[in-house]
């Protein structure tokens, strides 16, 4: 789909091109869809390693860009600049190696970056996403959570970090989430040996199974209702809470 042949359909609300043999999608090719709210381009074989922003869709709220082939490793830092109402962005099952710079996506409520190749340390990557509620980072290659990993995410409620390569979590990493986070998944991080409860005072659900090095857990999670843990003896510490 190129810019010389833009799609025409100003009343179209939803467009699903999932599974089509598309190789190129120009950023301006969808600019005529001024009322579009949902766009799905998943499971296409995109040749480019970089995804440009989509212009001319001011009402867009939901974008699904999952499994775009074996090449996609980055997206435009201004991806949301023409879609200020965007609430849900799914980029799972791609080849992203770093968290994109979402400099204009302040309206996002849900972001799915699971099943990519994001690695290294999280440190302030989401500071502009101040309205985010759900963040999915499972099945990546993250190794460390820095002190500023979740700065700016004061409204985050659900955080999935399962099946990464986490080795360390800074003792204050979850502090910015203290007032909002109620569901945390850190399961299957087999090198993780320590977990702090700082910032997890309101946590309702914790998944920590598959962490064989995490032999000792924090003394208590005062609001917890569901704990899915690695070792049976972990449960003993929480029977009286």
Automatic annotation (TrEMBL):
Q: Which domain of life is it from?
A: Eukaryota
The record's listing under InterPro entries reads: KCNMA1_auxiliary, Leu-rich_rpt, Leu-rich_rpt_typical-subtyp, LRR_dom_sf
The protein's matches in Pfam families, at most eight in alphabetical order, are given as: LRR_1, LRR_8
Q: Name one GO molecular function term.
A: voltage-gated potassium channel activity
Keywords annotated in UniProt: Cell membrane, Disulfide bond, Ion channel, Ion transport, Leucine-rich repeat, Membrane, Receptor, Repeat, Signal, Transmembrane, Transmembrane helix, Transport
Principal location listed in the UniProt entry: membrane
Q: Which GO terms describe its cellular component?
A: voltage-gated potassium channel complex
Topological relation to the membrane, as annotated? Single-pass membrane protein
Location comes to: Cell membrane
* Protein name in UniProt: Leucine-rich repeat-containing G-protein coupled receptor 4
């Amino acid at each position: 789909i190129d810019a010389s042949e833009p799609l025409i359909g100003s009343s179209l609300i939803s467009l699903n091109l999932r599974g089509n043999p598309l190789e190129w999608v120009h950023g301006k090719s969808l600019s005529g869809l001024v009322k579009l709210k949902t766009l799905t381009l998943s499971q296409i074989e995109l040749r480019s390693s970089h995804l440009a922003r989509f212009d001319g869709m001011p009402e867009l709220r939901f974008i699904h860009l999952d499994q775009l082939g074996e090449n996609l490793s980055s997206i435009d830092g201004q991806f949301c600049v023409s879609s200020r109402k965007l609430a849900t962005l799914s980029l799972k099952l791609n080849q992203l190696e770093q968290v994109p710079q979402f400099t204009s996506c302040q309206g996002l409520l849900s972001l799915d970056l699971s099943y990519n190749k994001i690695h290294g340390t999280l440190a302030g990557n989401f500071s502009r996403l101040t309205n985010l509620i759900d963040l999915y980072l499972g099945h990546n290659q993250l190794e460390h959570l820095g002190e500023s990993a979740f700065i700016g995410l004061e409204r985050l409620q659900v955080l999935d970090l399962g099946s990464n390569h986490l080795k360390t979590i800074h003792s204050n990493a979850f502090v910015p989430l203290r007032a909002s986070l109620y569901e945390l998944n850190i399961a299957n991080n087999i090198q993780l040996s320590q977990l702090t409860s700082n910032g997890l005072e309101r946590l309702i659900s914790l998944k920590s199974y598959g962490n064989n090095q995490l032999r000792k857990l924090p003394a208590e999670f005062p609001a917890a209702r569901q704990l899915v843990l690695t070792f049976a003896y972990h449960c003993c510490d929480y029977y009286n809470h």
